[in-house]
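anyone else get weird line breaks when pasting these?? whatever heres mine. first is seq + tokens for prot A
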Amino acid sequence: MNNFFTTLTFLFITYFSVSQSYESKIDSIVAISYNQNEPGISILVAKEGASIYSKSFGKANLELNIPLQKSSVFQIGSITKQFTAVSILMLAEQGKLNIEDNIGKYIPEYVEIGKDITIHNLLNHTSGIKNRTPVGDKGFISKTNMSPTELIAYFKDEPLEFKPGERFKYSNAGYIILGRIIEIVSGQPYSDFIEQHIFDKIGMKNSSCGDTKQGIPNPTKGYIIEQNDFVKSDDINLSLAYSAGAILSTTEDLLKWQNALLSNTLLKASSIKQAMTPTSLNSGKRVPYGYGFRFSKLGNSPVIAHTGSTKGFTSIALFLPKEKLYITALTNCNCKNVNNVAKQVAELFVSIPDDKITEAKHNQPERKSINVPSEILSDYTGTYEVKPNVNLTIGLDNTNQLYLLAPGQTKKVELFAETQNHFFVKIVDAEITFNKNEANNVISLTMNQSGRKIIAKKN
């Protein structure tokens, strides 16, 4: 089994020249976290609706040594909620429902408890329905198949957590109810509705809804981390995720989805605006969520996004309307921060205001370094084995500056001492501690970057 920390290049990629092209810069950002011998990532960047970058890194299946491709199919988790919300709005435009309808009109189990809950409350997570689903319950068998009515029966007796419209609280259960409403109103299974009215209409040929299609082309296996090793995640029966998270797709298909939304292929402009507008609570307070879309900012640039996660998979899709930029990244391991990767890529295209940079630096406490005698630093120099035939080098230059050189890299990165054996890096969030045995000999180092830890034995 591959070890989680097989390379150290993540530490140095951000130190590259600003003269790089966008392609090489994106390559560098992605390579910080993903390499070709681990579960990986497919990432696509589009400008004004056209793809300007589309690549995959890593393996779709470690055991079979199958690389990821641009056409690799991933579970996209809660990005599914966008499809559910748009389907509801499509039915509303057809006059088959009204988003102000009480949900008890369609779901008998909620005639009483849901008498004040509207479809609108489900769409924007203000219903008060507790986020309790089989997928989230400890010990639940993830391969169990459940129908939509069985899923609703699982949580229908839970009391509301608050009065509808009073608060925002994310609820997968609410989106499961929306899926059932789509079925009742349309007369079609949820998966059939999505495939007929969305996938087929806009050419999402490599997408499917749950386990409805056998023999999915270019399937991707999900992984988790156990004791620093990649382990295949348990297969989940996607009927459990249903309309809250059961869709499988590719980065290229998700670009088709985004373009269809912006071109009003599926919905009128007024409906899209409604979905992409922050919610107002009963008090008038605004919360950064619409109908399947979250809202934030990157510098002065608005961001419209959603993330997703299932067992062994994580995903993000974000749109920056000011820059007309769309980024989607899909991964087959829920052990790395794909959101941060997408954010760093987006920052390449966004001008961060100087005052925001100054503010960020001001809020970041300055780390003080100390001087360490050269005879102590010399003990740290040498090579350290990360894995067989993969070593990093610790060196000392003629100015008494300790540095680290990663395998395959030529750029030295300076290390600054906080104590005599604990050092930090200024260019990225990384720290190194040198470990000694009882005889006071250096035997290893421990590197920690943003919670990711590597222990390397000194040769």
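and prot B, same format (seq, then tokens)
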Amino acid sequence: MTELATRLDTPALDVAALREEFPILAREVHGKPLVYLDNAATSQTPRRVIEAFSNYYAGYNANIHRGLHTLADEATAAFEGTRETVRGFLNAGDSREIIFTRGTTEAINLVANAWGRDNLRPGDEVLVSRLEHHSNIVPWQLLASQLGIVVKVIPVDTRGVLDLDAYRGLFSERTRLVAVNHVSNAFGTVNPVKEMASIAHAHGALILIDGAQAAPHQVVDVRDIDADFYAFSGHKVYGPTGVGVLYGKAALLEAMPPWQGGGEMIQTVSFEAPTTFAAIPHKFEAGTPAIAEVIALGEALRWLEGVGVEAIGAWEAQLLEVATQRVLRIDGLRILGTAPRKASVLSFVVDGAHAQDIGLLIDQLGVAIRTGHHCAQPLLAQFGVDATCRASFAAYNTLEEVEIFAAALERVIGMVR
């Protein structure tokens, strides 16, 4: 363990005991103990979440809301129980403001297609930061090509920090929406979304926040932020894939038309009269939802809150600090994203070595990291690269794993340069 690691505070959580809750962490990869550092893409899942998923299919597998039998009642109660869990997790004012989606991407597309198509006119502006994941860029570009709106880019500096002065200067009388992430998936930059929301509202614009990378690492209070829309994904908060959340202020959701049509989202359907729609949130949840995934998401959030989001964030900050200092000792390695406020993402390039080669070789040593453009091509282009290596940390990672990662990285770099 490094000298810096020994000087750090003892974590407020029992990491060794916590690791026992994750079955996958006991496996080996290529004969080496798994060191999983790809958490920004997908976090691992504790046993109780896996059991919540399987228990639905084993014990009360039924469709929800309209059934009158016992299994349907039990499934509906568990499903709607998650809605209330999410409401508390985000400190939303009303569970009707919580819509279940397939993930952050679908949540953003829902806003773009329901709110955007109903409210945006040719020449209207949407502000999008250069830090965004493609899922918070492409939907607005599609509307630009189809509706004639204008997408304006909020710049970032050489540290990967959003330029707030430039942001203020982008507003005009045609600005209708700001679409920005809470935390950058590529660099880990934590954006000042509360201040950005205040600025947007002062100009009569709404703000949509991509919270996929924030929800696992810090307490999110949508009312304190004054977010109009906020989205996150289940598989980044120790839950299952294929499920996510859109929070929206009730008044906005009520005024928005449905995005998809089908079962569940209607009140009445007739060929003789206009179809009428269900109240929120069901107006935006057409068809049979991902019932087991939603139930398991609720268990994941209860697990996360039980461990303590603040304690997890503090521990991850220690891991990031140690990892940063450790890899900076490697000759030719350059970190991209040096914002003073970061979540647990370490993105870097190495002179004379391709990111893909590093990722493939370090996997042979049991270490899982992410390589590529991280669905953030405009951001990486500003820094003159088309790919980085990205190590990202979660509650169950250890200082010993940081050292294993750094030693493996040194060994791999020596092989490829």
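btw re prot B: The chain is about 40% helix and 15% strand. Residues 70-90 form the longest helix (21 residues).
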